[in-house]
Amino acid sequence: MDDVALEAGVSRALVSLVLRESPKVSDERRARVVAAAAKLGYRPNAWARGLASHRKKTIGVLLNELHNPFYAEIMDGIDAGAAEAGYRVVLGTAGSRPGGEQTALDTFLELRADGAVLVGPRLATAEIARAAASMPVVVVARGVRSKAVDSITNDERHGARLVVEHLVGLGHRAITHVDGGSGAGAAARRAGYEEAMRGASLAREIRVVAGDYTDLAGLAAADTILRSRRLPTAIFAANDLAAAAMIDRFETAGLSVPADISIVGHDNTFLAALHHISLTTVDQPRPEMGRRAMALLVERMDGVRTTSVNVRVTPSLVVRSTTGPPRPAS
Amino acid sequence: MDDVALEAGVSRALVSLVLRESPKVSDERRARVVAAAAKLGYRPNAWARGLASHRKKTIGVLLNELHNPFYAEIMDGIDAGAAEAGYRVVLGTAGSRPGGEQTALDTFLELRADGAVLVGPRLATAEIARAAASMPVVVVARGVRSKAVDSITNDERHGARLVVEHLVGLGHRAITHVDGGSGAGAAARRAGYEEAMRGASLAREIRVVAGDYTDLAGLAAADTILRSRRLPTAIFAANDLAAAAMIDRFETAGLSVPADISIVGHDNTFLAALHHISLTTVDQPRPEMGRRAMALLVERMDGVRTTSVNVRVTPSLVVRSTTGPPRPAS
DNA sequence: AAGTAGCGTTAGAGCGCTCTAACGAGGAGA
DNA sequence: TCTCCTCGTTAGAGCGCTCTAACGCTACTT
Q1: Which of A273, B22, B122, B292 gives a 20 to 30 Å CA spacing to A196?
Q2: Tell me, what's the pLDDT at B329?
Q3: Measured distance CA(A318)–CA(A240) in Å, rounded
């Protein structure tokens, strides 16, 4: 920086002002400084700047797992939001290391990050609250009861209701839910299903088959359903993977989808969009969740808001080819 | 830090030594300092440390796109390697921003990152080489002709050879390749196929149908093949997605896989592993690619090596249920 | 003419660490 | 006993910036 100042024939402080795009520098000097910096190939040192200014322009993002597309897409949104707001992203993941999440959080604290986004953290709420004492924290895809922390969650009940209403609208009554066991959001999804069924005066048709978020669970559930006394006319599966497996099993058993049985998935993964699956499914706006998380964080970092906010993102139904009216009773 | 020194009754320099885990501190004083730091909830300031020590313990990772599971899994490996070696990861992506990759690279340079990993960069080689003048750089999933840069690529030819040899071993001769057009690695994959066919004395059976990495391309290619004079007994598709689409189309046309036609995919994505697809496919060791990238970077950062290395990772064949012996000529 | 305001510019004191060189206290060797 | 080492400890000068307060200058007022 001294070199640039020398080259431009001004003081170091003036160079600093130019680099910070201060308005109170004359155009002539600004040009001289810019030219000198370019000539010398000067690049400001982010560490010195961070130390001196306390403005780090850095946020930490803790990701549960990266290879899970669900989280990766949320990350995508966070990343876009961060780039837009001019923040660097320091990534932390737990991997399979024990205490990995805590380590990542500690890193953020040592970095004096301007804020942190925790995506699907498994950390104890107390730990999160402790971190939130040092910097703004937004939690995504998990509700956190703490007034120091903002959160973004998906409205699982609403999604389930959309599914049931769609199927009821097509004329279905015997709608079975294959649930996601103890997976994230599964309980709320199941509750939403039951609530919606009651809302449609179909309380007596409520049927839940145990499952989880795998294709094997889907196969097992399909078998269970095939063996049952009376076949449902529609199924709301825990997720797309299970739904795809079920379609496969039903078609093997000689049933036609959706003529004999309608199937709805959940998550609108790339699988659902595949041409030869073309699954009706519930979409969670993942990139948007990431973007909104960043937006909340920016509000906090700018000090615009100090009260906690819990955003509930609204999922939507994507109707494709696996749902249709039930076969008229013969 | 001064507070900790005061609390422990030692000098600030000694506190610094303890925090850096220097061996030349007596156990008694070390304990005192540790206790004092814990009592005061002291956390070292990474920015000050980075500025003073020039050891940043930070690497930049530029990711082409995060929502592509292929890159996400590589990232997974990088992240694991970085955590192990004690480096923080600053993530940069281009998003859809023009010049986004360059911006990310500039950020790494301003951060004086200890090194950078570029995953599938679209940047010009010259730009990469320029960055490599300031810090060690490893490029993943793209070959780079520069002796200042290390790279990790997949041995596409080897993968193609494995496929052809597997099929030939089953008794196939008429093996068609549906290629990936101008996609990453497609040219090498196609060349590998042709080479392997010639190696098996099947030069006259070489047939390449144009495609790309989408399911629609798979459908189109399947149609092209179905209309052809003589049906191949086996197909090597550009990737799993195209392969899955082709299976669907062939079965719709009344063909049975693998009895009538064997199909091999590429990438061993989660799709291939799906129970009802169970696709024979070529696996690229993605997390390993990430890990090795980190390993190469660490070597450079430690100054252990100054000559450039180009690692070619070896793919493997995952045999599942879509390949079998051809139907005996009737 | 002197005073005042406003502007661009600058000196210099930090920011919170690291690290070199110097220091003092014991113990070994002469 | 004195010197020389070794070892744990410390003083203090940076690291490369930011930022406050002060500065000199021109322009305007009275």
Answers
A1: A273
A2: 67
A3: 12
Chain B, 38-67: which CBs lie within 7 Å of strand C? 42-45, 48-49, 51-55
Residue A16: which CATH number?
A: 1.10.260.40
CA separation for the pair A64, A92 (Å, rounded)? 9
Beta bridge partners of B236: B177, B264
Residues 47-76 of B with CB under 7 A from strand D: 48, 51-52
CATH for A298: 3.40.50.2300
The verdict on A31 and A64 lying in the same domain is no
Domain assignment present for residue A326? The answer is: no
What's the gap between Cα A321 and its chain centre? 26
Structure token digits, residue A277:
């699956």
Chain B residues in contact with A79 (beta carbon < 8 A) = 66, 91, 93, 95
A292 in the same domain as A146: yes
Q: A147 and A294, same structural domain?
A: yes
Burial of A258 (0-12, 13-18, 19+ CB in 10 A): buried
Domain that holds residue A135: 56-154+286-315
Residue B223 lies in a domain: yes
Same-domain pairing of A252 and A302: no
Whether A203 and A140 map to the same domain: the answer is no
pLDDT at B128: 95
Structure tokens that stand for A101 in this block: 């999440």
A99 and A240 inside one domain: no
Q: Are strands A234-236 and A88-93 parallel, antiparallel or unpaired?
A: unpaired
Q: Which of A241, A265, A283 is the last residue of a domain?
A: A283
In whole numbers, what is the pLDDT of chain A averaged over residues? Answer: 93
Is B112 in contact with A274 (Cβ distance < 8 A)? no
Q: What would the pLDDT profile of B239-288 be if each residue is shown by its tens digit?
A: 998 999 999 899 989 999 999 999 999 999 888 988 778 999 999 999 89
* A205 secondary structure, DSSP code: G
For residue A328, tell me if it sits in a domain: no
Distance separating alpha carbons of residues B291 and B82, to the nearest angstrom = 8
Tell me: pLDDT of A68 over 80. no
Confidence (pLDDT) at A78:
95
Query: Looking at the 3D structure of chain B, how many domains does it have?
Result: 3
Residue A207's pLDDT is 97
CB B5 within 8 A of CB B37: no
Whose tokens are 């798979």? That residue is B218
Q: Is residue A51 part of a domain?
A: no
A16 Cβ contacts chain D strand, under 7 Å:
yes
Residue B68, pLDDT > 80, answer: no
The token duo for A112 is: 């004096």
